[in-house]
Amino acid sequence: MGLTSDTVRSVLTASVKSTAHLFLIVGTGIYLAKRDIITREGRRTVGKFVFELALPCLLFSRLSPAVSPENLAKWWAIPVSALLWTAVALLIAVLLCHFLRIPRSLRGAVVAASTFGNSGALPILMMTTLPDTFGPMMSDPDAEEKGVALVSLFLVFVTILMFSLGFWLLTEDSHDSTAQQNESDRVELVSVQRDGETIHERIEIDGEVEGDVEDADDAAESLHTTAPPRLILLDRVKRITNPPFIAILIAVVFGLVPFLRDGFLDEGAPLRTIWQASYTIGTATIPLSAILLGCSLFHSFQEKRAGAPQHAKEIAITVFIRNFAMPCIGILVTYVMLRQNAIGSDPLVPFMMALQANTPTANNMVLICVLANNLPGLRLISQAALMQYLIAPFSFTFFCAAALYIAYPS
Hints:
The protein is mainly alpha-helical.
């Protein structure tokens, strides 16, 4: 049996190191926000830089080398698992939001935080640690290189969904709360005595009486005007065709088209310096995203002291799905596919499939909330991510060891 106490220890060490690494950068963000070096307005400026330039460069430089017809053919189970894990997590989150009566204004944030995990940092750290400590991987000289390529291939498909579906979920929340606020600002509720009864009436700012309502939410809802379907469709298309989404599509094209790959990506390519510049700019993404998470946490703590509503139930949903439900489902589905001989002979593939179901919420969810000015979603996701990462050294280690157990049974 390849799984030993030394292997479990190495997995635990890698998990703790990755969490500590993240917390140090998040702590830097908290410090910068506390000293007012990064203000709330500055937070949005940093987020815009990451979203408009650094993140697209990161996605293009990291994903384009991993996309090739050869990789898609031999590792087809990785993109399938990316789509499957996303669909399953999305379904569980939607059902829990419905049955637990999560407010509509928070559902998008809960679903997004529950659906999209940190599919890059933790899995890559595992693949740079385990080949030096885990017996079966030590015998494969290409284990680390293949593992990083598998992570990148998974990221291609999950980030397409993250910056289309996930972006839509979080910006839809932002549009809803902004519209509701604008509508409420246009309405004043007054009490009128008629025939001995008190009747609540809605009056617009210009003084025109509109009719009877029960509360301000009904007033705002009744004032909502629906745009023509064509404009709604164009707005949604515009929101998902954002810079990271476009960068992913460009990366796929460069990876699959031979003359572009030969000209830009391969070693010795005449235009490889463009890829290298993109790679360098993209390295700013991960630390800046973690700093933004720290700033958001500091501001959410300030809002908590000021009496802002807390979202314990919503955070519990994300923790349940990301730290427990999805890892269990990932292990179970991967095991069944292995028993049916549906994955292939390379044990790294089932290990990566199960590992990718076992990650906390992606930091990019915080970034999207910052740019969309989705403050309730930002507060919720920041606190949910903190809670998930506090639990991760225990849950991630356990389920990563289980993934090794089923992928390397002897």
